[in-house]
Amino acid sequence: MEKKPNFSGPRRPMGPPRPRPGQRPRRDDVRSPQDPYATNQQIRAREVRLVGDNVEQGIYPIEKALRIARDLELDLIEISPTADPPVCRVLDYQKFLYQQKKRQKEQKAKAAKVVVKEIRFGPQTDDHDYNFKLKHAIGFLKEGSKVKAYVFFRGRSILFKEQGETLLLRFATALEEYAKVEMMPVLEGKRMTIMLTPLKSSPKKAAPKEGQRPAKPEGKPAEAPEAEETDNN
After folding, report:
1. In this structure, are 45 and 67 located in the same domain?
2. CA angle 29, 35, 39 (to 5 degrees)
3. Chosen domain end from 68, 88, 107
4. What is the pLDDT along the chain (233 residues), one digit of tens a residue?
5. Which domain holds residue 169?
6. How are beta strands 47-51 and 146-152 bridged, if at all?
7. Which of 111, 136, 155, 185 is most buried as measured by Cβ atoms within 10 A of its Cβ?
8. Between β-strands 116-121 and 146-152, what pairing exists: parallel, antiparallel or unpaired?
């Protein structure tokens, strides 16, 4: 029996099968270190919980979940790998990453940076210097900054610590309209410090629209004055 000659022509390289026409290419099984989420074949769980608007939510075997994503020409994204079972969404991966970056950027923009302004006093600060620093404190608080006021004691002036505490409490009382006391006067070394936080401004009342009467104040309406009697005689 004659042996058939071995085919020595070029062979097709080994690797994942090529996608069919109209089918999304499959992502590599190996997860890149830059990838924050596992997707498709990178998900190692036997079953997953599907969530999202474009699928029927529930727990599915991984094969069925991948099939659902493939039929929708989308990706299976593992958004909560520590859950039992892991939570996945069916969504375009690039679109998902864009949404996450946009959300993080918005949250970062909303996070207000806390600015603390320091104001220094001496235990025997005169009225002129006191009023000058009080005016600066009002400006800082209106900007939304915290104010850290402190009295610095030099040498034997530490004997006047009660006078320094009185000064700081007087300062806080003068700023009641603009701030609340976050920390009462505390002596730390040669400093006695008080912390003031700006008050949140109350929302302004909306002006009445054109053609709309302003709202009447609550309570009993004022009685009309009695007409004076006139003598016709």
Report:
1. yes
2. 45
3. 107
4. 555 555 455 554 444 445 454 445 455 455 566 678 888 888 888 999 998 877 888 899 999 999 998 988 899 889 888 888 999 989 888 988 898 888 888 887 766 677 889 999 988 888 999 999 999 999 999 988 899 999 988 877 777 788 888 999 999 999 999 999 998 988 888 889 999 999 876 444 444 444 555 555 444 454 544 544 444 44
5. 116-198
6. unpaired
7. 185
8. parallel
211 in the Ramachandran plot: left (φ > 0), alpha (ψ -120 to 50) or beta? Answer: left
- Torsion angle (degrees, nearest 10) of CA 53, 55, 58, 63: -140
φ and ψ at 179, to 5 degrees?
Answer: -150, 160
Overall number of domains in the chain: 2
Q: What is the CATH number of the domain that holds 189?
A: 3.30.110.10
Q: Alpha helices of 84-211 — where are they, by DSSP H?
A: 93-110, 127-142, 161-174
Residue 163 lies in a domain: yes
Q: Are strands 75-80 and 38-39 parallel, antiparallel or unpaired?
A: antiparallel
